[in-house]
UniProtKB/TrEMBL annotation, chain A:
Belongs to the ABC transporter superfamily. This is Molybdate transport system ATP-binding protein. GO terms for cellular component: membrane. It comes from Aquamicrobium defluvii. Residues 293-359 form the Mop domain. Residues 2-233 form the ABC transporter domain. It comes from the Bacteria. The keyword Transport applies. GO terms for molecular function: ABC-type transporter activity; ATP binding; ATP hydrolysis activity; molybdate ion transmembrane transporter activity. InterPro entries: AAA+_ATPase, ABC_transporter-like_ATP-bd, ABC_transporter-like_CS, Mo/tungstate-bd_C_term_dom, ModC_ABC_ATP-bd, Molybdenum_import_ModC, Mop_domain, P-loop_NTPase. Keywords: ATP-binding, Cell inner membrane, Cell membrane, Membrane, Molybdenum, Nucleotide-binding, Translocase, Transport. It holds the Pfam family ABC_tran. PROSITE patterns: ABC_TRANSPORTER_1, ABC_TRANSPORTER_2, MOP.
Automatic annotation (TrEMBL), chain B:
NCBIfam families: modB_ABC, PRK09421.1. PANTHER family: MOLYBDENUM TRANSPORT SYSTEM PERMEASE PROTEIN MODB. Residues 15-223 form the ABC transmembrane type-1 domain. This is Molybdenum transport system permease. The lineage of its organism: Bacteria, Pseudomonadati, Pseudomonadota, Alphaproteobacteria, Hyphomicrobiales. Its main location: membrane. It comes from Aquamicrobium defluvii. InterPro entries: MetI-like (IPR000515), MetI-like_sf (IPR035906), ModB_ABC (IPR011867). GO terms for molecular function: molybdate ion transmembrane transporter activity. Belongs to the binding-protein-dependent transport system permease family. CysTW subfamily. It is a multi-pass membrane protein. It comes from the Bacteria. Gene3D superfamilies: MetI-like.
């Protein structure tokens, strides 16, 4: 799938000028609230008509203002999951799920009702009315409804934003399964580093209606300067790892990565399965000698690759641990005391308990799109 | 009870005619009622305020004036009436159809108001969601908007029916008071009160008219509650 967007549009005082192409399995549109993410996704869905520009999905032109093309929303075959599930209150869950099917030509229906119901775990809800569902259940049904219209592209507009942490944790694995098991490209709007780190393959960063960066997720999340101010503490390195073994005695899971073994709190993932680990920059300490008498369990040897100086008390040190970039956020003072400079051999120290369920998620299997 | 149901043939005729006129007036008003309510709730067009004014005129004009205007337009020699009679064989003047037209027109603003309010309360985000699922505008209307405004349509229809049952001024002005053709319950009651010894008949018809109106209201309550349960809108 390739999605290419090149749009200029004014909405009240807000001006959005965005241009990017995405070809990932799950492309995150990432930025703080008010950055134009939702406007952009509504433009792609066809719910808003752009003043100027062009949008193309897999060679099919959806909008081209120069050529006078504007494909109405219902002819785009782009599924959309809204923040507020927007289930039809007068229909049962089953009718909601099957709604889009009516409008899809039989030859183009590639989604199977049973498979989707199974994937999302909503089999027990089919005869219920939306009003009786919990927030998480509603959102799962909304995802199923969008999928069953057999769309070319699935848009998700902050589908977790209106849910509490427990519900987010409930939905997240389903979106991971969707990304890994369904042959459908996803564009996912989010303002949360945790969600993007866990779900995205590619990221488009938006700020004040403009694209400030785009590319594979690991490269974006270690650029702390690209992240919204409130979320900067969540930024850091993304490490693709594999479950090596579970240490039942201490309820830990040992992961293998190019940087070495990493111990995290026990995860419910089978041995051999891929894991995507986010090591927050603020959780990484640096030692210039192998530390002893230290409670931290993860000590990764590496070399300082680069140092970025922030404007305040902090600096960001990028450590190359056998090809894996680990970012550490330390004070200017520590940097000076340790005499850090590019090329210096150091140890990146990470406490096991600094990993939580928002920083560990199922990794992506090999792409099959 | 016997006394109440022991109606003279003429009285029965008035009751039957009233129900028929009110039912036809209500049913015939629903489609244009939905159309105009939708235009007023959603449309952005020149003359919207004017249309709104015209729809509401019967509510503010004296019924006699409405009846007289109907007579001018739909009478045998009126421009619309002559056209319809000539091309479609539809005659309104001094027929029960004319009574239905008068009742429909008088109840129309009430129906439009009820439907318009319910259209305005429909969450347009649901319609947008239906669009992203592939439903074109007409499908969105018939599968999402229409079911959601059904309680409003029923409320509007019942109001129109109740108004038709009680309509007097416009009907008597437009189609007169002909027993068996245009003499509805209110006209019949009026006639009874104008003759000596008519008190008993007037009272009987009054009670019957109360019963019919109450039944209509109860029926609408039950229907609305059932629909409400089916929808369970949050």
């Amino acid at each position: 799938m390739t999605l290419s967007v090149d749009i200029r549009h004014c909405q009240g005082d807000f001006r959005i000028e965005a241009s990017f192409t995405g070809s990932g399995r799950l492309t995150a549109l990432f930025g703080p609230s008010g950055s134009g993410k939702s406007t952009l996704i509504n433009l792609i869905a066809g719910l808003i008509r752009p003043e100027e520009g062009r949008i193309e999905v897999d060679g099919k032109v959806l909008v081209d203002t120069k050529a006078g093309i504007f494909l109405p929303c219902h002819r785009r075959r782009i599924g959309m999951v809204f923040q507020d599930a927007r289930l039809f209150p007068h229909m049962s869950v089953r009718s909601n799920l099957l709604y889009g099917r009516w409008f899809t030509p039989a030859a183009e229906r590639y989604m199977d009702m049973d498979a989707i119901v199974d994937l999302l775990g909503i089999g027990a809800l089919l005869e219920r009315k939306p009003a009786g569902l919990s927030g998480g259940e509603k959102q799962r049904v909304a995802i199923g409804r969008a999928l069953l219209s057999s769309p070319r592209l699935l848009l998700m507009d902050e589908p977790l934003a209106s849910l509490d942490e427990a519900r987010k944790a409930e939905i997240m694995p389903y979106i991971e399964r969707l990304r890994d098991e369904m042959k459908i490209p996803i564009v996912y709007v989010s303002h949360s580093v945790a969600e993007v780190a866990r779900l995205a393959s590619d990221v488009v960063v938006l700020a004040q209606g403009k694209v400030t960066a785009s590319g594979p997720v690991a490269g974006i999340l270690r650029r702390l300067d690209l992240l919204p101010a409130g979320e900067r503490g969540e930024g850091g390195a993304l490490v693709e790892a594999v479950v090596l073994r579970h240490d039942d005695a201490f309820s830990m899971t040992v992961l293998g990565s190019a940087a070495g073994e990493i111990r995290v709190p026990g995860m419910n993932i089978a041995v051999g399965d891929p894991v995507r680990l986010r090591i927050r920059a603020r959780d990484v300490m640096i030692a210039t000698e192998p530390p002893t008498g230290l409670s931290a369990l993860n000590i990764l040897p590496g070399k300082v690759a680069s140092i970025a100086y922030g404007d305040g008390a902090e600096s960001e040190v990028c450590i190359d641990c056998n090809g894996v970039s680990v970012i550490s956020r330390i004070t200017q003072q520590s940097r000076q005391t340790l005499g850090l400079r590019p090329g210096l051999s150091v140890f990146a120290v990470v406490k096991t308990v600094s990993f939580d369920e928002t920083s560990t998620g199922k990794g992506m299997r090999e792409a099959h799109l | 009870m016997d006394w109440l149901l022991d109606l003279t043939p003429d009285e029965w005729t008035a009751v039957r005619l009233s129900v028929k006129v009110a039912t036809v007036a209500m049913l015939a008003s629903v489609p244009p009622g939905i159309l105009i309510a939708y235009a007023l709730a959603r449309g952005r067009f020149w003359g919207k305020t004017l249309l709104n004014g015209i729809v509401h005129l019967p509510l503010v004009l004296p019924p006699v004036v409405t009846g007289y205007l109907l007579l001018l337009a739909f009478g045998r020699r009126g421009p619309v009436g002559a056209f319809l009679a000539e091309h479609f064989g539809i005659v309104f003047s001094f027929r029960w159809t004319g009574a239905a037209l008068a009742c429909g027109v008088m109840g129309f603003p009430l129906m439009v108001r009820a439907i318009r309010l319910s259209i305005e309360s429909v969450d347009r985000k649901l319609e947008a969601a239906a669009g992203t699922l592939g439903a074109g505008p007409l499908w969105v209307f018939s599968t999402v908007t229409l079911p959601l405004i059904l309680p409003g349509i029923i409320a509007g229809a019942i109001l129109s029916f109740a108004k038709a049952m009680g309509e007097f001024g416009a009907t008597i002005t437009f189609v007169s008071n002909i027993p068996g053709e245009t003499q509805t319950l209110p006209s019949a009651i009026y006639t009874f009160t104008q003759v000596p010894g008519g008190d008993e008949g007037a009272l009987r018809l009054t009670l019957i008219s109360i019963i019919i109106s109450m039944l209509a209201l109860v029926a609408s309550e039950v229907l609305a509650r059932r629909l409400g349960k089916r929808m369970d809108v949050e």
